[in-house]
Amino acid sequence: MTSNKNFQVYITGGFAAIGGLLFGYDTGVISGVLTMSDFLLAFGGPTSLARGSLTSSISGSIVGIMLVGCFLGALIAGPSGDRLSRKYSIVLFSVVFIISAILQTASTNLFMLLLSRLVAGISVGALSMLVPVYQSEIATKNIRGRLVSLQQWAITIGIAISFWINYGTDIYFLGSSAAWRIPLALQIVPALILAIGILIFPFSPRWLMTQDRDAEALRVLTQIRAASSIDVLDEYNDIKNEIILEREQSIQSYAQFLYPPLRRRLALGISIQILQQLTGINSIMYYAPEIFKQAGLNDQRASLLATGINGCVLILATIPAILYIDRLGRRFVLISGACLMALSMLIIGGTMGVHGYTHFNETTSAVQVIIPNRTASFIIITFVYIFVASFAFSWGPTAWIYCTEIFPLSMRSRGTSITTAANWATNCIVSFLVPTWLESLTYGTYLIFGILCYNNGLEDMDLVFGQSIFAVDSIGTKKRMKSMNRNGIIKMQTTSHNDLKRIYYF
C-alpha cells in the first residue's frame, strides 16, 4: 500500500517530465538538422551547401529565435500557472507546441521556419517553468530533489532520442527533405501524449488550497502520500498556515520581489540560472556536430554518430543526480560539477590550440580547424563527453531544483517564471555568440567557457550559499534551535500551539 502511493507520486512527476523531453528533443534535433544537406540548400542556398554549413547569422537566428520565445514563454507561464492551474497550463502549452511542430515541419522558407521556432520557444519556455513547479508541489520534501531531477533526465532523454533520429534519417533519406522534416514532425508525438495524459493526473494540492478548494486538496494529498492520516493532516495544516501568513502579509504581487526577503531570493534564483547557462552547455548541445567536426570528425555521419553517443552520456550521467541529490546537498554537487567542467573546457581549448591550426577556405568562405594529430582529436572528444557528464549530474538538475525551493507558495509560480526567463535570456545571448566565436575564436571559445565554469565553482557559490534567506513552513513563535544540514540549509525549530514547526534559512 505504501509503496503504491510512493509509486503514484513518481509516476505523476515522471509523466509531467515529458515537458522536459520536448525541450531536450527540440534542442538536440535542431543541432543535427542544421548540418543536413537538403536543409542547407533550402534555407541557405547553394553557397551554404558548398561550405557545409549555414552562415553564422542564419544558424544563430534559427537557434536564437526559439530562445527569445522561451524567454517570453517563461514569463507568460507564471500568471498562467496561477490562474489556470499548473495542470491546465501544461495542457495549453503542449497544444501550442504541437502547432509549432506542424509549422516547422511544413516550413518552405526562412521566415516561416523562424516564426514556427518562435512559437515553439514560447511553449518550451512555459513548460520548462511549469513542470518543475508542478513536480515540487506534489512531492514531499525528502524526495523533492529527486522528483524535480526527473525533469533534467527527461531533457537528456529527449536530446539523445533526437540525436539518433537525426542519424537514422540522414542515412536513409540522404539528400531528401524527409531527412529533416521527419525529425521535426516526430515532436508532435510526445507533446500529444503530454497534453492528453496529464488530464488524468491530480491538480497541485498547494495550488488547490490557494484557490480555497481545501477539500479537494486534502483528497489529493490523501491519494498521493505514503503517510498516515495524521501526517497528511499535518502537511495540510502546514500548507494552510503558510497561505494564511502570506495573505496576511499581502505576498501576492510581483512588486513584492522589490523588497526583502523576496528580493534576495529572486536575485539568488536569477544568479544560479544565469550561471548555469554560462557553463556553455546548451551551446555545446546546439552545435555539437560542428564542434565534433572541429575536433577532427569531418565526415557528416561520423559527427552525428559522436553526437548520438553524447546524448547517451547525458542520460547515464543524470542518474546519479536523481539518486543522490537529496543526500549530497546542492553546494557540493554544484562546486564539483563546475570544477570538472572547467577542467574539461580548458583541456579542450588548450589541446585544440596546441595541436590544431585554422584554415580559411576561399571557396566556401568558411574557417576550418584542422587537427592532424589523431591522439589530440581523441582527447578533445573524450573531454567533451566528460564536460557533458559533469553538467548532467550537477548544474543540469540542481539549478531547477533550487529555484523551486526558495520561493513561498503564493509567489512560487511568479518567482520561478522570472528565474526561468533569466535562464532563457542568457541561453539566447550565448547561443547567438557561439557560432561567431567558433568561426573567429575557434579554440578560444572553449577557454572562455572554461574560465566561466571555474568562476562558477570557486567564487559564485559564495554568492549563492554564503548568506541566509528566510523561509517558513507555518506560523509559529520563534524558539530557535539551529542546525546546518548537508544542503547548506539552517533549520530552526519553532513551537506554535504545542506543534513543532520548521523555519529554513537558505
Rg of Cα set: 23 Å
The arrangement of helices and strands along the chain is: HHHHHHHHHHHHHHHHHEEHHHHEEEE
The biggest beta sheet is recorded as:
4 strands, antiparallel
Q: How many strands in all?
A: 6
* Overall pLDDT metric: 83
Shape: globular
Measure the end-to-end span: 35 Å
The low-confidence runs, each spanning 5 or more residues with pLDDT under 50, are 468-506
Helix content: over 70%
What's the quaternary structure here? single chain
The class by helix and strand makeup works out as mainly alpha
Folded structure, characterized:
- A hairpin with a 4-residue loop joins β1 and β2 (366-370).
- The longest helix has 32 residues, at 409-440.
- Strands 3-6-5-4 form a 4-stranded antiparallel β-sheet, with no helix packed on it. The chain has a two-stranded antiparallel ribbon with strand order 1-2.
- Helices cover 75% and strands 6% of the residues.
- It has 506 residues and is mainly alpha-helical.
- α17 (330-355) runs antiparallel to α18 (374-393).
- It is globular and about 70 Å long.
Brief overview, please?
With 506 residues, the protein is mostly helical. It is built from 21 helices and six strands.
List keywords for this structure.
506 residues; mainly alpha; four-stranded antiparallel beta sheet; 6% strand; globular; disordered C terminus
